[in-house]
Amino acid sequence: MLSLHNVSSSYGDIRILKNINLSVRPREIMTIVGSNGAGKSTLINLISGIVRCTAGEVFFGDERIDSLAPHEIVERGIVQIPEGRMLFPEMTVMENLDMGAYIARASAKKKERLKEVFTLFPKLEERKKQIAGSLSGGEQQMVAIARGIMSDPKLLMFDEPSLGLAPVVVEDMFKIIRKINSRGIAVLLVEQNVFHALAIADRAFVLENGEVVMEGTGQEILSNDRIREAYLGI
Known about the structure:
By secondary structure, the protein is an alpha/beta fold. 39% of the residues lie in helices and 26% in strands. The radius of gyration is 17 Å and the shape is globular.
């Protein structure tokens, strides 16, 4: 579905990503874990077209997409739920959801997707007229995910979805990600909550200093002694 071939990226003279090779298959949850500064968010932003490759190629299906603008990548079906949620805080919940359905393909399915997100997040239907910035952190994350679903994604990319959330809300967030995936949407998950992220992953990649140093199933990575010591403190 998504494949990166020998992808590198730099900020000025500093190489952030180095010869990355990875893929996301249809209908799977693929997780990327790594420490702060490993390049995880840069990788997500590169796939989204916000950051450019300095080398390598990115394909979505048979189409090379690394030269496309971010909105063109969204039109192809790749949608990012950004770190920090990045809502329009002065707009209502409903207006934020409307912004997710701005592209023609998504606009045609707006009613269908709206029904889907209100089934997934019934609280948002109750609060659709409420100003988004007045919601709790967990509720704002619901809006961010719902806005992404409104774009009719084929691949939904999450950048640190549990950041700043209470533990009980984090548990619910990972359940929601599983539900979304069960509806046929592939998921690429970047997350520092390593245990939860690997527990739901079909496959996982470990990123260190901009390089993939390990890959395998979520359970294989989770049971690896090096990962348990470095990321779980076990």
